[in-house]
Amino acid sequence: MTGRIHRFDALDNFRDYGDYATAAGRRISPGRLFRSGHQARASEADLERLGALGITAVVDLRRPSERRDQPSKRPPDFSGEVIESFHDDGGEAPHMTFLRTADLTPDSGRRFMVNTYRRLPFEPSHLDLFSRYFRLLGETDGPVLIHCAAGKDRTGLLAALTHHLLGVHPDDIVADYLLTNTAVDLEGRAPGIARQLEARTGRVVAHDAVVAFLGVEPVYLDTALAGIAAQHGSTDAYLAEALGVDAALRERIGTRLVA
Prior knowledge:
Strand order of the largest sheet: 1-2-3-6-4-5
Helix content: 40-55%
Distance between the termini: 20 Å
Number of strands: 6
Number of helices: 13
Structural class: alpha/beta
Order of helices and strands: EEEHEHEHHHEHHHHHHHH
Strand content: 5-15%
């Protein structure tokens, strides 16, 4: 699994989420599906490496305010499609509000994440972006990059939905989701994040609380999928009813991505 992780200077959680076996006994092509955190801090070397991947489309799952605060860097010759949302609530991203104002403990971090995942599949901006992403997969033959801020929650759910659609085994879906915890080096990064939060808020943040917030746990993804099942009956019904992924589009996506 760690072979999926691409190491960059300042581009976090970048990895290939293709190359999984499907229920039909075939395999998702490698080098076609990438996921990451934002690219606002990417170095020149990072951009050169990113350009070498031949990415033809980027799906940016962040809010407009996040994009304004941390604008994406692109390889100088990038001419691909960029899919973004313009659903702007005019406010701060919820995770930033939580980090700035909440009593940061491991339990509060986990409660925040569970509540976040209850909403993720149904927020208007996500319904818009997810549906446009799946239409893109049915139209393009080039590599696609999906990302949000940290590349773990919005991105993690969308990657899991993609895997489900393509027939990836549930164990592999969860393993790919949890790979964030290896790719991000939670223990190594937590002290620096804690210092940044203390400087911003004046409050000391416990190491365990930072680790809990930066990482992912199976219950988070389970919460989103349970909410999908409660509202639509199944993930397949959600894909069709909420995102417009009908049988014809599923077939086109499979034809393009599964070897």
